[in-house]
Design goal:
Layout (H helix, E strand, L loop, with lengths): L2 E5 L10 H16 L1 E7 L11 E6 L10 H13 L3 E5 L4 H11 L3 E5 L3 H7 L5 H14 L2 E4 L2 H10 L7 E3 L13 H12 L6 E6 L5 H19 L6 E6 L4 H8 L6 E5 L4 H7 L2 E4 L9 H8 L3 E5 L15 E4 L4 H10 L9 H7 L1 H11 L1
Parallel strand pairs: 1-2, 1-4, 2-3, 4-5, 5-6, 6-7, 8-9, 8-11, 9-10, 11-12, 12-13
Helix pairs in contact: 1-14, 2-3, 4-5, 7-10, 8-12
Length: 369
C-alpha cells in the first residue's frame, strides 16, 4: 500500500459546503486505498477522522499561506515518513510544494478543484489577474495535476500548454454506488415533515447561501423562476430550499412561504432530501468549477434542471436523461423544462456510478500514484 501525504489548506471538518464535503469524503476514500497522512488547519475536528492521520499544522488565519516554518516542517515529515508522493489541494501552497520537492525529491501532485482565477473573475474580484499568474506558474511546476472537470483539464492543456501526460481526472465523488431503491420512502418522510401533498412535484435547491453564486441563484428562483411556475396551469409543486444562511436571507425566504417555497435551513440528512426530490434546481451563473450538489442530486435519483453555466464540469455523457440544460438567463425555458418533466420518471444510468462512486475514483487514483 502506497504512503501518501496530502495538504488540505482550509477547514473541512465538520463540513458545511459542497466543497468541504467533497474533500472530507475523498480523504476517507483515499485512505481506504493508501496509507494517508493529512496536514490540515488547526480548527478541523479530529474526532471525525476515522482512517487516516491528521496533523493540525496550519494556522486558522490567512497567514498560514505565508508560514515559512512549514518549509522545514513539511520537508522533514516527507523525508522521515517514506512517502511516495505529496498531494496539494488547490494551487495556493504551490510555492511550498516546489520547495518541499526540491528538498526531498518526492513528486508534487496538484489537485485543483477549479480554474481558480476564472472563478474569482466571475465573482468580480479585482485581484484575479495576480491569481492567474500564480495559478499558471503552479500548473507548470506540478509533476501531475488532477482535475475535477473535463473543461478545466482542457483549459490547462490549450491555454497554458500543460502536457496531456501530466493531466489526470479526479471527479467529484458520491457515496452511493447505485440508483436508490428507497426514493418513495424518503419522499413520504420529507413530504410528511414539511406538509407537502403526495401529488406535488417536489423541487429542491441546496447550497451554502452565504456564497454569492448560490445566493444569486436563490434570488433567481424566488424572483424569476417561481413566478413562472405559479402562473402555470395545473402545476402542483413545492420548492424546498436547504442550506446555511444569514439572518437577512432567512427573513427573505420566510416571506415566500405562501408562494410554495419552504426554507428547511441546514439539514444533517441532505441525502434524504435528494432522494425525496423529483427535480433539483441549479440556475447558477457564476463561480466556476463543478456544482457538487448537482452531482449528488443525480446520484440520489433527482433530475437536475441547470443553466449551461450550472452544468459546467459534469460528465454529461454518463447522465442520460437526468440532466436537462437550458441557456443562461432563459428563465422561461428553465421553467418549461420543470413543467415538462412533471410526469417523467427516469433512472440514473449505471455508467454514472461507475464514474462518480467514491471507491471507484479512489482506486483509480491510488493505482496511478
Amino acid at each position: 500500500m502506497k504512503k501518501i501525504l496530502l495538504l488540505a489548506p482550509y477547514p473541512y471538518l465538520p463540513f458545511f459546503s459542497g466543497g468541504q464535503k467533497f474533500i472530507a469524503q475523498f480523504l476517507e476514500s483515499l485512505a481506504e486505498e493508501t496509507e494517508l497522512t493529512v496536514i490540515g488547519v488547526e480548527t478541523n475536528d479530529p474526532a471525525t477522522v476515522t482512517n487516516y492521520r491528521l496533523l493540525p499544522w496550519l494556522k486558522k488565519s490567512f497567514t498560514r499561506y505565508m508560514d515559512l516554518r512549514l518549509i522545514s516542517r513539511v520537508s522533514r515529515e516527507v523525508k522521515t515518513g517514506g512517502y511516495h508522493a505529496v498531494i496539494w489541494e488547490h494551487p495556493y501552497f504551490a510555492w511550498l510544494a516546489v520547495m518541499v520537492r526540491r528538498r526531498t525529491g518526492v513528486p508534487f501532485l496538484l489537485h485543483t478543484h477549479n480554474i481558480e482565477h476564472e472563478r474569482f473573475r466571475s465573482m468580480g474580484k479585482w485581484w484575479w489577474p495576480l491569481l492567474k499568474w500564480y495559478e499558471r506558474w503552479a500548473f507548470r511546476k506540478a509533476d501531475r495535476i488532477y482535475f475535477i472537470t473535463p473543461e478545466d483539464k482542457e483549459f490547462a492543456k490549450t491555454k497554458w500548454a500543460i502536457p496531456e501526460s501530466r493531466c489526470a481526472d479526479l471527479p467529484f465523488i458520491v457515496n452511493t454506488r447505485e440508483y436508490p431503491a428507497d426514493k418513495a420512502i424518503h419522499r413520504m418522510k420529507i413530504g410528511d415533515q414539511h406538509g407537502i401533498g403526495k401529488e406535488d412535484l417536489l423541487i429542491l435547491f441546496n447550497g451554502l447561501l452565504s456564497y454569492k453564486p448560490n445566493l444569486d441563484a436563490l434570488l433567481v428562483i424566488l424572483q424569476k423562476i417561481n413566478p413562472l411556475l405559479l402562473a402555470a396551469t395545473g402545476l402542483n409543486y413545492t420548492i424546498i430550499v436547504c442550506g446555511k444562511a444569514g439572518p437577512d436571507t432567512v427573513e427573505e425566504l420566510n416571506r415566500y412561504r405562501d408562494r410554495k417555497i419552504i426554507y428547511a435551513g441546514f439539514v444533517d440528512d441532505i441525502e434524504s432530501y435528494f432522494k425525496a426530490a423529483d427535480i433539483f434546481l441549479n440556475p447558477v451563473q457564476s463561480g466556476g468549477g463543478i456544482k457538487t450538489k448537482m452531482v449528488e442530486a443525480i446520484a440520489y435519483g433527482a433530475t437536475v434542471v441547470a443553466t449551461e453555466t450550472g452544468a459546467t464540469g459534469i460528465k454529461k455523457e454518463v447522465c442520460g436523461e437526468k440532466l436537462l440544460t437550458v441557456p443562461d438567463n432563459n428563465w422561461e425555458d428553465f421553467a418549461k423544462a420543470i413543467i415538462d418533466h412533471r410526469n417523467t420518471a427516469t433512472i440514473t444510468p449505471a455508467a454514472y456510478y461507475a464514474y462518480y462512486y467514491r471507491q471507484q475514483v479512489a482506486r483509480r487514483i491510488a493505482a496511478g500514484l
